[in-house]
Amino acid sequence: MPLMLEGKPVALEIEQRLRDELAEVDHAPGPPATAAAVLVGDDESSHAYFRSILRTFKRVGIDVVPREIEATISEDKLERILGELNQDPDIDGVIVFQPLPDHLDRELPANILSADKDIDGITYANAGRLSLAVPHLVPSTPMGGIEILRHYQMPIEGQHAVVIGRSPIVGQPMALLLLAENATVTICHSRTRDLASITREADIVVLAAGKPGVLTGDMIRPGTTVIDFGVNFVDGSMTGDADPSVMDVAGAITPVPGGTGVVTQRVLAANTVRAARIQRRLPQRA
């Protein structure tokens, strides 16, 4: 049985860290740390995540301004709203929940949001800084994976990490974060030939393909660490990208559910505190 890299202990550790930082932020001139949560339309999963974020932020002591917007909003009007949030001195960070309704450009937030308020690290400026190894505000999901590896003292430096998935939200930034930790990184995707021959050479496998069963037990060597970002539903049950057979071979693995998701939300909160420090010109903590 592998070591289960449960997310809850990591989340609690981050929360404690944030409470210490928030005390410093709240003593600085200005309002308390505040995030705007922008939800457009009626996507069920987005609404569920929206409610979960509100609970998490309240738990750690961050104020949230919820902005629920009708699905029929025009692109121009949404752009104006985001521009106003950029300029609002009482708002430290902004998250725009995806997916946006089909008639809206899903890249609009990446184009419009201020890099200093982009708490999910989606803007082109923040993506560029990450690629140049000078991160500012980092995408919350992959950073959550790094937090898990650190918490459980899983070795990263010098390890061969294989990332399956190349999305700009998870796969690509995760590869860059692993590089920053001095791992040797290979990115694989749907066009990769002979995936198993690559994953069998890995010390760490990161799953971000959004496809259940993309990694099976015979595709890894004994003792491999598996970070599973997959969120899939099979026969009504949530599952990751790892096939159940991986459990018989892996040395450590994040469970789904109960692994990366709960940590992602705390990283969003941590990014909000970081953004609040930026707005108040407070030095960042290491």
What characteristics describe this protein?
single chain; 286 residues; alpha/beta; Rossmann fold; 2 domains; 6-stranded parallel β-sheet; 11 strands
Overall domain count? 2
The CATH homologous superfamily of the largest domain: NAD(P)-binding Rossmann-like Domain
What is the mean predicted local confidence, pLDDT? 96
Alpha carbon gyration radius: 19 Å
CATH fold-level topology of the largest domain: Rossmann fold
Element layout with pairings:
Elements: E1 3-4, H1 7-27, E2 34-40, H2 44-60, E3 63-69, H3 75-87, E4 93-96, H4 108-112, H5 124-131, H6 140-151, E5 160-164, H7 171-180, E6 184-188, H8 195-199, E7 204-207, E8 225-228, E9 232-234, E10 237-239, E11 252-253, H9 260-279
Parallel strand pairs: 1-11, 2-3, 2-4, 5-6, 5-7, 7-8, 8-11
Antiparallel strand pairs: 9-10
At a glance:
With 286 residues, this protein is α/β, with parallel strands linked by helices.
Provide a descriptive summary of the structure in words.
Strands 1-11-8-7-5-6 form a six-stranded parallel sheet. It has a three-stranded parallel sheet with strand order 3-2-4, with helices on both faces. Strands 9-10 form a two-stranded antiparallel sheet. It folds into two domains: 29-115, 3-Layer(aba) Sandwich (Rossmann fold); 140-260, 3-Layer(aba) Sandwich (Rossmann fold). By secondary structure, it is of the alpha/beta class. Helix content is 39%, strand content 16%. The chain is built from nine helices and eleven strands. It has helices at 7-27, 44-60, 75-87, 108-112, 124-131, 140-151, 171-180, 195-199, 260-279; strands at 3-4, 34-40, 63-69, 93-96, 160-164, 184-188, 204-207, 225-228, 232-234, 237-239, 252-253. Helix 1 packs parallel to helix 9 (260-279) and helix 6 crosses helix 9 (260-279). The chain is globular, with a radius of gyration of 19 Å.
